[in-house]
Specification:
The protein is α+β, with helices and mostly antiparallel strands. Helix content is about 25%, strand content about 35%. The chain has 2 domains: about 220 residues, Rossmann fold (3-Layer(aba) Sandwich); about 100 residues, Nucleic acid-binding proteins (OB fold (Dihydrolipoamide Acetyltransferase, E2P)). Strands 6-7-8-3-9-10 form a 6-stranded mixed β-sheet, sandwiched between helices. Strands 13-12-11-14-19 form a 5-stranded antiparallel β-sheet, with no helix packed on it. The model has no long low-confidence stretch (mean pLDDT about 90). The structure holds adenosine-5'-triphosphate (ATP). The site of adenosine-5'-triphosphate (ATP) has 12 residues, from β2 and α1. GO terms for molecular function: ABC-type ferric iron transporter activity; ABC-type quaternary ammonium compound transporting activity; ATP binding; ATP hydrolysis activity.
Length: about 325
């Protein structure tokens, strides 16, 4: 195991920001620490880098404890939300800083800087002043600077959250491609599930300083371990049901969940787990919000109020009657 984090606890005075965190990261793997604001993600990342003193626990690389290894000798690269570039130097000098710090001979700098700029999609930007870069370009330069010394672990703390939505999505896709192509081992902090799912192989969900669930992104998404994780991953309605031979019967109807074990289960419904259809449960729209590719609804049923979706073209308003049907794609089993 490249990185192993064991029972790491961090206190700020009497407040416990991270409690007994355990994580493993294999070579070439990308792990996202995902959680709401204040859940302790940055604190855990900082503890791993050595920037934050730990009250208990160990951080090891290839089995060797890093307690006595100072931050700059850990061989880790760091990228923060605002790239923290040196404003008075040009792009090439910012990237070469990392090379100088690691004793790369000066004669090799220009070639390596050009390679790194090519890698982050900014070929030819060497002489550009960093004050003349867009937010997205600045983050690419920060990434190139962090990668310059070929770190054994790249740590990214909300690297895209200072950017506007469209750019963030594009940069997340580019970054995911770069991490996979270059087989970089990386730990990413984010509060954005889309970003975590685009970039990471595995995800650890934090809440109130504790890792609630850790696993492959797909399995955490499909099988959240508890209600806290489920809510954070977009589940808004919980529904008891009884599974028999891969079909779960509930008060809202039956739905196929092939791997649900027979017996009582708890379903978690994301908004698109209930869709407007020609047939189904009757209800009344109490709120409708038009989004780019669908309409989000709040619908009052006979016994409860639920979230649901309709196609973008649906012209629905509060007071309209609708019928809802369960869609397995938006339904998880919680706490299996
Ligand atoms: N230097 C500090 N001194 C005291 N408390 C702190 C300090 N840094 C963070 N905290 C507290 O520790 C908790 C965890 O903070 P942390 O920054 O790790 O959360 P986070 O999940 O990264 O949140 P965000 O996404 O908002 O950055 C928060 O309640 C925060 O207020």
């Amino acid at each position: 195991m490249a990185l192993s984090v064991r029972d790491v606890t961090v206190h700020y005075g009497s407040f416990t920001a991270v409690r007994e965190a355990r994580l493993d990261l294999a070579d070439g793997e990308v792990l996202a620490l995902l959680g709401p604001s204040g859940s302790g993600k940055s604190t855990l990342l900082r503890a791993i880098t050595g920037l934050e003193p730990m009250s208990a626990g160990t951080v090891a690389w290839d089995g060797a404890d890093l307690a006595a290894v100072p931050v700059h000798k850990r061989g880790f690269g760091l990228v923060f939300q605002d790239g923290q570039l040196f404003p008075h130097r040009d792009v090439a000098a910012n990237i070469a800083f990392g090379l100088r710090m690691h004793g790369v001979p000066r004669a090799q700098h220009a070639k390596r800087v050009a390679e790194l700029l090519d890698l982050v999609g900014l070929a030819g930007f060497e002489r550009r002043r960093v004050t003349e870069l867009s937010g997205g370009q600045a983050q690419r330069v920060a990434l190139a600077r962090a990668l310059a010394p070929e770190p054994r672990l790249l740590l990214l703390d909300e690297p895209l959250s200072g950017l506007d939505a469209g750019l963030r999505e594009q940069l997340a896709i580019d970054l995911a491609e770069l991490l996979r192509r270059s087989k970089i081992t990386a730990l990413l902090v984010t509060h954005d599930q889309e970003e975590a799912f685009t970039l990471a192989d595995r995800v650890a969900v934090l809440d109130a300083g504790e890792i609630r669930q850790e696993g492959a992104v797909g399995s955490v998404w499909r099988r959240p371990a508890d209600e806290v994780v489920a809510r954070f991953l977009g589940v808004s309605t919980f529904l008891p049901g009884t599974a028999e031979s891969g079909v779960v019967g509930t008060e809202l109807g039956a739905v196929a969940v092939p791997d649900a074990p027979d017996g009582p289960v708890r379903l978690g419904l994301r908004p698109h787990g209930l869709r407007v259809a020609a047939e189904g449960l009757p209800g009344e729209v109490t709120a409708a919000v038009h989004r780019r590719d669908h309409v989000r609804l709040v619908v009052r049923l006979a016994e409860s109020t639920v979230d649901a979706v309709a196609p973008a073209a649906a012209d629905l308003r509060a007071g309209d009657p609708v019928r809802l049907t369960l869609d397995p794609d938006g339904i998880t089993v919680v706490g299996l």
